Amino acid sequence: MNGAGGSAVRAAGEAGGSGARAPGEERALTSVAAGDRFEVEEPRDLPRLWHVTLSVSGEEAPLKEVRRALEQLAHDHPFLLTSRYANDHAEIRYWEEARDLHDAAAVALRLWGEHRQTAGLPPWEIVGLEVIDRQTYHQRIAEGYGPPPASPVGAHPF
């Protein structure tokens, strides 16, 4: 028992020097003195928003089929912001939530191939990828040299 009349508490690492507790053994308690501040570290792995532009191209396909496929992709995955298309290429723009640029790029690079069958997308290859953070996207827009505004959400011809 401790001096305050409470239950017996063993310090972590006491029995045999290991941090493991025996069955029924209580966990060590820690406290913060009155007036002390508990400092919380900011988590570094919180998701951020990334603006993705994916460009694909390949053999010509009928415009109606390309549009229908892009609309199906947008219906299946409503995160798609806008897409532009022609009979031999397309550009898809959207926001991705990811921990870092590498994760956002990896998802973007899988998007076309993974959804080719379900959305009926043409068998085109990825020919371009841009992933920028939210701050950079808004800075470009403010300076007038960013991507064209994505105000009309949906699939549109070039």
Description of the molecule:
- With 158 residues, the chain is of the alpha+beta class.
- It is built from four helices and five strands.
- A five-stranded mixed beta sheet has the order 4-1-3-2-5.
- Strand 2 and strand 3 form a beta hairpin.
- The protein is globular.
- The termini are far apart.
Residue fraction in strands: 15-25%
SSE string, helices as H and strands as E: EHEEHHEHE
Shape: globular
Q: How many β-strand stretches?
A: 5
Helix content: 25-40%
Low-confidence stretches: 1-19
Largest beta sheet, briefly? 5 strands, mixed
Q: Roughly how many Å apart are the termini?
A: 78 Å
**Order of strands in the sheet with the most strands?**
4-1-3-2-5
**Cα-atom Rg, whole angstroms?**
27 Å
Number of helices: 4
Given the helix and strand composition, which structural class is it?
alpha+beta
> How confident overall, as mean pLDDT?
78
Present the secondary structure layout.
Blueprint: E1 48-57, H1 63-76, E2 80-85, E3 89-98, H2 101-114, H3 116-119, E4 125-133, H4 134-143, E5 154-157
Parallel strand pairs: 2-5
Antiparallel strand pairs: 1-3, 1-4, 2-3
Characteristic key phrases:
globular, 5-stranded mixed β-sheet, 158 residues, alpha+beta, disordered N terminus
